[in-house]
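ok here's Sugar (And other) transporter family protein:
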Amino acid sequence: MTALDTQTRSAQDKLTFAQWMTVLAMGLGFAITGADPAIFSSSLVPVREGLHMSTAAAGFTASLATLTLAATILGAGTLGDIYGKRRMYLVGLAGVIVSGLLAALSPNAVILMITRALTGVGFAFLLGLSLAIINATFPPAQRGKAISFFLGTAFLVGRRYRWSATSWSSRWGGAGRWSSPRPRR
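and the structure:
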């Protein structure tokens, strides 16, 4: 192997800025799909009480996004092949954002269930197309590095948001308990 071969190989192994941003964007989208169930579950009791839902209906609502993700992920991949992976990924991202906002504004349990199901459809596009986009973006020599960074980003970001959602609500609730005035005995 000559010095020129080594330099060429070294240049091929480096990721460009656009490739790094692609991996980061796909990792963040993938992280949303993992963090959402924990975030929604941590707020399930106040949602259930606020919308006067039964425990069974609340549990079903919590699983709706995952159920619709599983039911639609193959269709999302097919649409990505037909209309373009990037375009369909952005449709999925917009769907997650819009359905999440509508879920937050739900006036009743039925609307919440519908919006959670739509969130799952958006998750199918994010989950199904993120790795496909990475595979299409990177040559085989760089895929291992790109997929490692993709999964690392998704794991770290998703874990951080899951922790924040479950931890901060309990910390502020506990702080309110200790800081509230107590009656004298």
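+1. The longest helix spans residues 140-179.
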